[in-house]
Amino acid sequence: MKKILSLTLAALLVLSLFSGCSVNDGRITINVYNWGQYISEGDDGCIDVIAEFEKAYPNIRVNYVTFDSNETMYTKMSNGGITVDVIIPSDYMVGRLIEEDMLLPLNFENIPNFEYVDARWKNPDYDPENLYSIPYSWGTVGIIYNSKYVDEADVTGWELLWNEKYADKILMFDNSRDAFGITQCLLGYSLNTTDPAELEACAEKLKEQKPVVQQYIMDQVFDLMENEEAWIAPYYAGDYLTMSDENEALEFYLPEGQGFNRFVDAMCIPKCAQEKEAAELFINFLCDPEIAGGNMDWICYSTPISAAKEFMDPEVVESEISYPSDEVLDRGTGYLALPVETTRLMEELFMAVRNGL
Q: Which residue from 60, 102, 61 is spatially nearest to 80, judged by alpha carbons?
């Protein structure tokens, strides 16, 4: 099972990353900035990815810090004054970082394992020539619900998240893009709409939902759903698999006829990087099929490297939640980078929803 960093440890790591401090032991230090619970750390006999990398490259030390949303990561990056060598944002955020000239082009001579990435995941819309990113994982956003308390007859689509019957037991994303994405699916809008009127309508729909929402969350979803303090939450398929290991009553549903977000998280090197070549070695290491297999086996997200499946639990590889059919995947839509004014409006509208304005 995945483990959440203790608050004390997380705080110390953040201070280390954002102050630019490193251990003075003669090794190169690379700062890796990734989502919480998103790399195998050696629990339950699984691979410790960072330890294995440091064993393979004894002259390189990895300082690993986490973020809980693309927007948190972007704010830290755009404010400047930090040293980060590898980041793993989602597709639309990669596109935004490219547009804002915040990423360095990759030297693929240092990343020969890119050859293992499946053709389906190469040259994506957010990085058409694969100049700046390499896919780390992919997945879908659906509804997690507790079958002990939620009537199956109510599980018909995204409208479940507005159902007053489950007031105070419903969780909602605490980031604007995912929250608006759900509402866009519900209202029949494009997940990449730039129409202010449609965004205003989404905000009004989110305001209607607010009275039934227990909390707006990100990584807190694990404890709340596993411990049955909440019964319904939109979240990522890979994280559902982790939660279901802890609570067998949890189920996952991809709404039919309304659409859903199909996402990719990708490895990039920001312009503030100080150890680009070492960062590329780290990215290459993560693309090794055996390493990728062990890593994805633990985080439960889907791998863009089919050769990695040889090293994974067959139950995970055969899971329709981890690896839906092409027909199901085609019902999903990827987020694209939006114009700055659209992103700003969406964030302002979401903040107003959160603050009850």
A: 102
Where is 87: in which H helix or E strand?
A: strand 86-87
Question: Strand pairing partners for 60?
Answer: 28
For 206-217, write each residue's pLDDT tens digit: 999 999 999 999
Handedness of CA 293, 274, 59, 108 (dihedral sign): positive
> In the chain, which residues have pLDDT < 50?
1-23
Which domains does the chain possess?
7-138+263-318 (3.40.190.10), 139-260+333-354 (3.40.190.10)
State which amino acid sits at residue 84: V
CA 217/CA 46 separation, integer angstroms: 28
Residue type, 224: L
Question: What is the spatial distance between Cα 226 and Cα 218, in angstroms, rounded to a whole number?
Answer: 14
- Which single residue is written with the structure tokens 């509804």? 143
Taking the C-alpha atoms of residue 200 and residue 206, their distance in angstroms, rounded to an integer, is: 10
